[in-house]
Amino acid sequence: MTHKQFKGLGIALVTPFTATGEVDYQALRNLVTYQINNGADFLCILATTAETPCLTAEERSKIKQIIVETVKGQIPIVMGCGGNNTQQVVETLKTDDFTGIDGILSVCPYYNKPSQEGLYQHFKTIAAATKLPVILYNVPGRTGVNMTAETTLRLARDVENIVAIKEASGNFTQIDDIIKNKPADFVVLSGDDGITFPLITLGATGVISVIGNALPSEFGKMVRLALAGDYNNALPIHHQFTELFKLLFVDGNPAGVKAMLNAMGLVENRLRLPLVPAKIDTFSQIAEILRQLNIKL
Questions:
Q1: 12 bridge partner residues
Q2: Residue 199 belongs to domain with CATH number
Q3: DSSP letter string over 116-167?
Q4: Is residue 130 domain-resident?
Q5: Closest-CA residue to 220 (of 5, 11, 14, 39)
Q6: Do the Cβ atoms of 202 and 192 come closer than 8 Å?
Q7: Can you give the pLDDT at residue 1?
Q8: 107 near 82, Cβ under 8 Å?
Q9: Interatomic CA distance for residues 76 and 42, integer angstroms
């Protein structure tokens, strides 16, 4: 697999739980099959949307194994591997089993708020510890630190296996700066469903999507049309989902998308503390929009 395949519709895959709180491995298999059958271009597993901090090491290992076995090489798999302890991430990369994994997604260090030089050295050190392609993940709303365009571009130019960024800063000027000045083969992925369409018009080449868990075919169609330059047909689909984009995050992620998946009969509406399910009113609004869109429940 090459990093050029980390384009189009990537899915920030959720972790289904049973009604009693265990990982629902059968629902996970079904969800992965659903993604493949409905045109997902790649999967992003065991990252933020997967509630990974609330999973045990044994659960994470089994989830990875089941996803790899279910995918059977049909599409690339990116796995979350990041943290705010650089040496611990390096040890994970050196000692864990990455069989069947085609790249890693590594989030900016959270809580300890490193400088831009600290971010640069952190990701350079991580990338040196693996032969896998590395996708940077900038999400200041969660980490407390924003990686500037200058730092992203420095890493893109200096480190051969840093091949892409999932940009979730919401800062159009910053993201446009990266797109404008990046190396030709460096991939910029939207980290926010709601601004994927405008970012593609600027030159982004895909998304790691939350809504794609539930609507890979519908959202994927918008992504593919936009990537083909057919903005006239992509824009109405983008506008169809405007309210859903808001509802999916009003009670936090992945509460919104799990409510949607539950309304569609795909998973239990269950999260692990400290996260809780979306409010009843939010669930009702999501279900009503799905009905209006004629999405099969």
A1: 44
A2: 3.20.20.70
A3: HHHHHHHHHHHHHT-SS-EEEEE-HHHHS-PPPHHHHHHHHHH-TTEEEEEE
A4: yes
A5: 39
A6: no
A7: 42
A8: yes
A9: 5
CB 23 within 8 A of CB 63: yes
What pLDDT, in 10s, does the model give residues 233-277? Answer: 999 999 999 999 999 999 999 999 999 999 999 999 999 999 999
Please give the C-alpha separations between residue 131 and each of 31, 104, 126, 153, in angstroms, as whole numbers.
29, 10, 10, 20
**What pLDDT was estimated at residue 3?**
52
What is the DSSP secondary structure assignment for residue 46, as one 8-state letter? Answer: S
Cα separation, 12 vs 135, in Å, equals: 13
Within-domain flag for 248: no
Within 8 A by CB and 6+ apart from 61, the residues are 97
How many Cβ atoms are within 10 Å of 239's Cβ, its own excluded? 11
Name the domain count of the chain: 1
Share of the chain above pLDDT 70, in %: 98
Q: Give the residue-averaged pLDDT of 112-124.
A: 97
Whether residue 279 is contained in a domain is answered as no
Confidence of residue 296 (pLDDT cuts 50, 70, 90): low
pLDDT at residue 297 is higher than 60:
no
Residue-range definition of the domain harbouring residue 15 = 3-227
Active site residues: 137, 166
Residues 60-86, mean pLDDT to the nearest whole number: 98
The predicted pLDDT at position 295 comes to 77
Asked whether residue 258 is domain-assigned, the answer is no
Q: How many Cα atoms occupy the beta-carbon half-sphere of 256 within 13 Å? A: 21
Both tokens of 233, joined, read 């047909």
Residue 291 CB coordination number (10 Å): 11
